[in-house]
């Protein structure tokens, strides 16, 4: 193999050897079932949004600070992430996936879907 070919393959090898995480998209029903089983629930919205209504037992860890709090999440139990619509929680899940987390769940539709489904929020 030529030197140029080896250099071209190096980034692919580095990516392949890096941490491999994953996450699944779930709906509000799955989230509320997991609550009773002791899942760790993270609201990635701002503190102001969190105060307007959040999932019972959720902790508020804004996505803008994910690099600061990412290593504090438990790796031995399911972690559910949600936001207003599912976009910011998906961004957080992607970041955490790259850090090697595998027990992650992104709540599709976020608080909007939770409220639409009639599940309780703490205000």
In short:
About 4% of the residues have low confidence.
Describe the structure.
With 123 residues, this protein is an alpha/beta fold. It has a single domain, classed as Oxidized Rhodanese, domain 1 (3-Layer(aba) Sandwich), CATH 3.40.250. The relative contact order is 0.23. About 4% of the residues have low confidence. Helix content is 42%, strand content 15%.
Fill in the keyword field for this structure.
123 residues; alpha/beta; Oxidized Rhodanese, domain 1; five-stranded parallel sheet; globular
Count of domains:
1
CATH superfamily: Rhodanese-like domain
Q: Which outline best applies?
A: globular
Oligomer: single chain
- Taking Cα atoms only, what radius of gyration do you get, to the nearest Å? 17 Å
**What is the first-to-last residue Cα distance?**
63 Å
Describe the sheet with the most strands: 5 strands, parallel
DSSP summary, beta strand count: 5
Overall structural class, as computed from helix and strand content, comes to alpha/beta
Rounded mean pLDDT score: 89
The CATH topology turns out to be Oxidized Rhodanese, domain 1
Tell me the series of helices and strands, N- to C-terminal.
HEHEHEHEHEH
CATH class: Alpha Beta
Question: Strand sequence of the main sheet, in spatial order?
Answer: 1-5-4-2-3
């Amino acid at each position: 193999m030529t030197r140029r070919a080896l250099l071209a393959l190096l980034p692919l090898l580095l990516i392949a050897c890096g941490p491999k995480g994953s996450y699944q998209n779930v709906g509000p029903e799955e989230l509320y079932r997991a609550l009773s089983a002791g899942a760790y629930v993270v609201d990635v919205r701002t503190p102001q949004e969190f105060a307007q209504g959040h999932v019972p037992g959720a902790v508020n860890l804004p996505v803008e600070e994910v690099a600061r709090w990412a290593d504090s999440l438990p790796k031995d139990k399911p972690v559910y992430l949600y936001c207003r619509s599912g976009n910011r929680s998906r961004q957080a899940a992607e970041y955490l996936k790259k850090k090697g987390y595998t027990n992650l769940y992104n709540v599709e539709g976020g608080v909007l879907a939770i409220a639409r489904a009639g599940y309780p929020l703490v205000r």
